[in-house]
Amino acid sequence: MPEKKAIFKLKNVTKIFDTKDSIVKALDDVSLEVYEGEIFGIIGMSGAGKSTLVRTLNRLEPLTEGTILFDEQDLALLPPKKLRSAMQQIGMIFQDFNLLTQRKALDNIMLPMKIAGVRSASVRRARAKEMLNIVGISEKENTYPAQLSGGQKQRVAIARALSVSPKVLLCDEVTSALDPKTTGEILALLRDINQKTNITIIIITHEMAVIEKICNRVAIMNDGKLVEIGNVSEIFTNPKTDTAKQLVYREVKAIYE
Questions:
Q1: pLDDT in tens, 10-20
Q2: What is the pLDDT of residues 126-151, one digit of tens each?
Q3: I want to staple 8 with a disulfide (CB 3.0 to 4.6 A). Which of 34, 130, 131, 160 is the partner?
Q4: Cβ neighbours, 10 Å, residue 122
């Protein structure tokens, strides 16, 4: 088998927040790799550091210590123009959708392309229509966010993130605001997109059920540390750390309640 290529390499990543009242080590010497084309999960309870970790991947949070390589490039060393180009390869979708309320669905999807330098409005419009078709709501192109359901908003957000053809899609608690049925539909959509395009997907969640349904591998965080990493099937059948055991047990218990 060919060797897997790492799209992200994290080496000894540490993030410290120094506030007026305290010093918080949100990330503590985290090292891991995410491979091209996989669906990789990062899970932990509230305060574990998972959301801070994903924010370091797209440079929303600068590192205190350590290195992040994206596609074999050290993001901290890139000049501004090359950094902007690299960041366009990292799409992101959020729990609260982050859609512009005064813009229709199609316009929300067209905006990142304009920012990325796609000058032709007709090209942007055609691409946005294509993306809406891929996520299954082409009939909603002229609808404002307030008129959409939660699942439809998340589909628009996914279409927007995909519009500039990124290599990686970061998903931060993207199903937390959705009901179980809609959660299943969104996860199935992400899995289908991954299989058809080979885009790397990184999912941040506190729900083991999400990890089980969609991810190939999972990293388990606790108190800013990476405490366990492995294939999802291995973690579920043989969790080694107390944190992993608690998360798996909680999921099994929820199934039988």
A1: 999 999 998 87
A2: 999 999 999 999 999 999 999 999 99
A3: 34
A4: 7
Cβ(184)–Cβ(213) under 8 Å? yes
205 beta partners: 43
Sequence ranges of the chain with CATH classification 3.40.50.300:
6-89+167-256
Q: Residue 39's pLDDT band (boundaries 50, 70, 90)?
A: very high
Kindly tell me the burial class for residue 83, based on how many C-beta atoms sit within 10 Å of its own C-beta (0-12, 13-18, 19 or more).
middle
According to the model, what pLDDT value does residue 36 have? 96
Closest CA to 188 of 158, 214, 215, 170: 214
Residue type, 104: K
- Residue 221 bridge partners (DSSP): 226
CA distance 142 to 242: 49
**Both tokens of residue 12?**
């000894």
Q: Tell me: the pLDDT tens digits for 112-128?
A: 999 888 889 999 999 99
Strand segments, DSSP code E, in the chain are 6-18, 23-35, 39-43, 65-70, 73-74, 90-94, 168-172, 200-205, 217-222, 225-231
Edge-to-edge strand ranges of the sheet holding 65-70: 23-35, 6-18, 65-70, 73-74
**Alpha carbon separation from 64 to 26, 36, 79, 103, 109 (Å, rounded):** 10, 26, 19, 37, 34
List the one residue out of 159, 172, 52 whose CA is nearest residue 99.
159
Domain spanning 6-89+167-256, CATH architecture? 3-Layer(aba) Sandwich (3.40)
Confidence (pLDDT) at 188:
95
CA nearest to 158, candidates 148, 211, 70: 148
d(CA 226, CA 169): 21
